[in-house]
Amino acid sequence: MPDVRNWQLGRTMHYPFGERRPERQFAFVINTNRCIGCQTCTMACKSTWTFGKGQEHMWWTNVETKPYGGYPQGWDVKLLSMLGPQPWSDSGKGERSSPYGTYDGETIFEAARTRPAAPGQTVLGYLPTDAEWAAPNISEDTPVGGKGEPGKYHPTGESLPVHRTWFFYLARLCNHCSWPACLAACPRKAVYKRPEDGIVLIDQSECRGYRKCVEACPYKKSLYRPTTRVSEKCIACFPRVEGKDPEGGGVPQETRCMEACIGQVRMQGLVRTSPEGGWAEDPGNPLYYLVHVAKVALPLYPQFGTEPNGYYIPPRWVPRPYLRQMFGPGVDAALERYEHPDRELLAVLQLFRRDHRIIGSYERLDGRKVYEREIRGRTWAMYDDTVVARGLDGKELFRTRVEEPVIVRDGKHANTI
Questions:
Q1: CB 269, CB 287: distance < 8 Å
Q2: Are 384 and 367 in contact (CB under 8 A)?
Q3: Which domains does the chain have, with CATH numbers?
Q4: Which helix or strand (DSSP H or E) is residue 183 part of?
């Protein structure tokens, strides 16, 4: 196996194919603090792409309740236990090439070499049983913690930074990884990564339904369709990303799951890549800012080694050890920054779901101070800055303000019944 650079791990790792980066990379950020678990994204994707025969179990986008939920059931718990110890060190921590430190454990590619489950296996993985695919909403809204009594307040209450009773919603879709496990495992080479935008697709004419991609994908976002006997997966709504959706007027648009989000938890776009590996420096891109400058958006299970291009702002009420396992050692710094956002971060957070078109860059215009208070011993101020969003072509898409305007309806339409 060649050695490739994985900046999320802070080191090189083994991968079946050599280093090769797309011109731009499809990426997204999801703010778990805002997600209300309404499943609007889930149904938007389902009604667009997976409503045919043999696709009944296919949920390319799903929202699961953590820590007990998962689709397929136990997808992360199983693989974490198979992978073994996942230690991190502070070596190089804070540097651009290793912002979270160095991962000293094995990735799913490296573990397959030392603990092969079958001859010739290139990726550590497993095939879920039929029963594990049966319940996409298993354990929905099921919390950790003691059970309350009807009509009574909890005697200890709940307060930040960590709740005793907790759950949170995790919205998931294909991460279109930089080092896809599905691509590494396919014996037919039917899985490929597009050079123009890094979207990972399956060539249906080459696939023979061996389900090696299903077995290998650590996030279980490659699925087998029995009626056609081939595998299918999220295609990142590439006609929309290309600007070919008839309703888009030729302008690149976000995916259906992103566009449909009513909780304003999502932002999706394209980032420039660097020949040296990872993302090219581009502070004007809101995704780059959230991941590499503010560092509030973290990869999902970076220890798997696929370098996922889906990032999450962690929920701030959840016990830190659980979050570190899920999002890596950058959690504490990310939550500290998110809970005390500076003017730049607060402005960028206003861009989430303000428009269905892909944002290529942004600009913040200073406004007046409108609010000041103390948050857990620290003074924090809010400014009514204006944020200008521009498309991939540099043209202005929209403007929005940090302070939400309040509109009061006049009395002539009041309900008089």
A1: yes
A2: yes
A3: 3-146+160-339 (3.30.70.20)
A4: helix 181-185
- Cβ atoms of 405 and 365 within 8 Å: the answer is no
Do 286 and 362 touch, CB atoms closer than 8 A? yes
Window from 24-33, 273-282, 308-317, 320-329 with minimum mean pLDDT: 273-282
- Residue-wise pLDDT tens digits, 249-299: 899 999 999 999 999 999 999 999 988 778 999 989 999 999 999 999 999
Q: Output the pLDDT for position 185.
A: 96
Q: Which two tokens stand for residue 86?
A: 């996942």
Strands 310-313 and 298-299: antiparallel
Q: Is the pLDDT of residue 416 over 70?
A: no
Token pair in block for residue 181: 């496990």
Query: Which residues lie below 8 Å from residue 34, measured CB to CB, with a gap of 6+?
Result: 263, 264, 265, 352
Give the 3-state secondary structure of residue 304: helix
- Cis peptide bond upstream of 67, omega within 30: yes
What is the CB-side half-sphere exposure of residue 51 using CA atoms within 13 A? Answer: 8
Tokens representing 239 are 């006609």
Are residues 89 and 98 in contact, defined by beta-carbon separation less than 8 angstroms?
no
Q: How far apart are CA 271 and CA 37, in angstroms?
A: 28
In DSSP notation, 60-74 reads SSEEEEETT--SSTT
Residue 293 falls in which region: left (phi positive, over 0), alpha (psi -120 to 50) or beta: alpha
The mean pLDDT of the chain is: 94
Q: At what angle do helices 331-339 and 320-327 cross, to 10 degrees?
A: 110
Decide if 261 contacts 251 (C-beta within 8 A): no
What amino acid is encoded at 415 in this protein? Answer: N
Contact 257, 241 (CB under 8 A): no
| Beta pairing class for 310-313 and 24-31 | parallel
